[in-house]
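Morning!

This is the sequence you dropped in the shared folder:
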Amino acid sequence: MPERVETPASLSRTITRDQGLVWHPYAPLDGPAPYAVRAASGVRLTLEDERGTIHEVVDAMASWWCAVHGYRHPTLDAAAHAQIDRFSHVMFGGLTHDPAVDLAERLVAMAPGPMAHVFFADSGSVSVEVALKLALQFQSAAGRPARQRFLTVRGGYHGDTFAAMSVCDPVDGMHSAFPGVLARHSFAPRPPSARLVVHDGEQHWEYDEVELAVWRDAVWETARLQRDELAAVIVEPVLQGAGGMHVYPPECLRALREIADEFDLLLILDEIATGFGRTGRLFAAEWADTRPDIICVGKALTGGYLSLAAVLTTADVGAVITASDFRALLHGPTFMANPLACSIANASLALLEKRWQHDVSRVASALDDGLQPARALASVSDVRTIGAVGVIQLHGPVDVTAVTRAAIERRVWVRPFRDLVYTMPPYVSTSDDVATICNGLVGAVREVHG
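The structure's back. Tokens below.
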């Protein structure tokens, strides 16, 4: 149970000073009080609530899915210190440096498909902006300048900047808050649901083949009718994240690749949340053995230490851009290829390459076992897992404040949304850590929603 302790005045006042001053994501200025972070180490956070009570909790969120190695990892700390002792930032216009080149080489070697070029961006959302811009430049350079729209699916989420918002779900996303400003794109139906199950030690996918066929035909017809307007297809492969933690069949990716090839579209895969092992493959595209033209990566790239993302593309796309009138990809963030972030990313990916399969397999098994009791709760409509992702879906909206508080009382930090109480824990979480997470989530849902 949490223990009340004396805290220094400067820390105990943090929450009071924050409220009404600092805007938090998707929260009003007069919303519920946040928790103040006192410390973070391994997979644990030390939090202070508005009453001054201290809670040590297991982080079920990996800080929105990026802190895959946990906090204060000695290897990543050492990489940060070593780079700071050299230089922490230089502009990337006209300059280069080893951390960026090393990281680009590593990403190209890791990525699915024949990726050949890397563009570094500030964040995942900005990487999506760059990918969309790249697709438009490609189509124009290829002699198809009228192709200015994108084909995507319902239920997707790609970020909060304007172009990224425009390819997010048009109903459950933020389109209604910005009428007349967001570009209008083409939305095919949401892919059918799928479930990854283990039988006799082998993984296989379960889904309704009739639903898949109907969906494929609908997307194909949409692309056929709008082929002269469309530049690219963009989707999150296999797992739609903030759009509802929706798992869909890998065959959908194969269908989208076929559609893109048939109608001269690029295939953009947003692997920001799914990349680097989260779904049980190094990249989610590998579930379908699908070759994308453009990939966006971020989140786990630096292990949660600094914001960094990247756009990877093929030699064919790069050649078309280079032969165009502009010859360049028209984007250039101030902090592009920040050497401090790139150095940490290199260290983070080196750690991943050594252990991710073992770690994700352990976490996946513990999530699959630990969340099963939620199926018996009256408030729960579904429980699903894929890789290091576990989801409890309710019949109605989650009481976010109450469930968060109830989970903290059970030594777990969780951030529910919509009708979902979910976890994407750090990969380094032990089986006991994951058991604590599962018990906390199931117990909090049972207490608040029954």
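Headline: The CA atoms of residues 219 and 225 lie 10 Å apart.

More detail when I'm at my desk.
O.
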